[in-house]
Design a protein that fits this description.
Elements: E1 2-11, E2 16-24, H1 32-42, E3 50-57, E4 63-71, H2 74-80, H3 83-89, H4 91-102, H5 106-111
Antiparallel strand pairs: 1-2, 2-4, 3-4
Length: about 110
Amino acid sequence: MEITITSDKENVLLNRREVGFDIVFNGATPSRKMVHAKLAAMLNTPKDQLVIGSLQNRFGMTEITGDARIYTSAENLKKIEPEYILKRGMVGEEENNADAQDAPSGDAAEAS
């Protein structure tokens, strides 16, 4: 998977950078989790300050066009981004929620 940054714009009003990128890949389409991790490493940004907005894959092509936003702090990200974008674009929170759902609750353990 090779990521090329196509645009990088500073948005001072919202305290963030807006990055456009293209991805060329071989094999299966890369997951959001893989793109999020590689983009964070490539841009030298903490994962909790980066959110992926969109990923558009064209039928039959091994290219993806996408955009991401990098905030100055995690608090700014949570204040500005809508809830569904946070759930879709943030990998760390999904893993925490999945772990919480897999763990048995105290009520279920007491009932049995």
